[in-house]
Amino acid sequence: MSRYVPLRFNDIEQAALERIFAASEDAALGTHIKRVYFDASQPNTNALQGMRRELETIREIAARLQAGGPDGTDPDLLLSLVCGVYLMVRQSVGAGVRAQADQFIDASVLQGYLGRR
Q1: What is the pLDDT of residue 10?
Q2: So what's the pLDDT on residue 82?
Q3: By CB neighbour count within 10 A (0-12 exposed, 13-18 middle, 19+ buried), where does 48 fall?
Q4: Domain ranges in the chain?
Q5: Are 114 and 57 in contact (CB under 8 A)?
Q6: Percent of the chain scored above 90 by pLDDT?
Q7: Closest to 54 (Cα-Cα) out of 79, 91, 29
Q8: If pLDDT is split at 50, 70 and 90, which confidence band does 66 have?
Q9: What is the pTM of this model?
Q10: What DSSP string describes 71-110?
């Protein structure tokens, strides 16, 4: 059984909705609204597991930074830490924001860099 539910948005809400919809891969606005609403109510288990792995990597890097050289800094370790934080933040945002960020930074390159460390 389907039910029609009319929604009314003010100008600011409509502008934000249209901007987010444009960044998504959804074909229809109704589909987009339903996906965002229902996806938000489901825990993203894969993303959480990925974040746990990345947190562990960051913990290891932080421990190595504390043990560091004479001045306590290592550029490679700092870069690894920044990459890890970026990937965690990227995982925590919606698909639309990830798509926008992916236009500028290739996450697979960062993941590959961290994987080689």
Answers
A1: 93
A2: 87
A3: exposed
A4: 9-42, 45-117
A5: yes
A6: 8
A7: 91
A8: low
A9: 0.44
A10: TS--HHHHHHHHHHHHHHHHHHS-HHHHHHHHTT--HHHH
Q: Check if the beta carbon of residue 111 is closer than 8 Å to that of residue 84.
A: no
Burial class of residue 73 in the structure, from the number of CB atoms within 10 Å of its CB (0-12 exposed, 13-18 middle, 19+ buried): exposed
Residue 41: DSSP 8-state? T
Distance CA 6, CA 91 (A): 32
More confident residue, 11 or 81: 11
Between helices 11-23 and 29-40, what is the axis angle to 10°?
90
Contacts of residue 38, defined as CB under 8 A and 6 or more positions apart, other chains included, come to: none
- 16-57 pLDDT per residue, tens: 888 888 888 888 888 888 888 777 666 666 777 777 888 788
100-115 residues labelled b (16+ CB within 10 A) or e (exposed)? eeeeeeeeeebeeebe
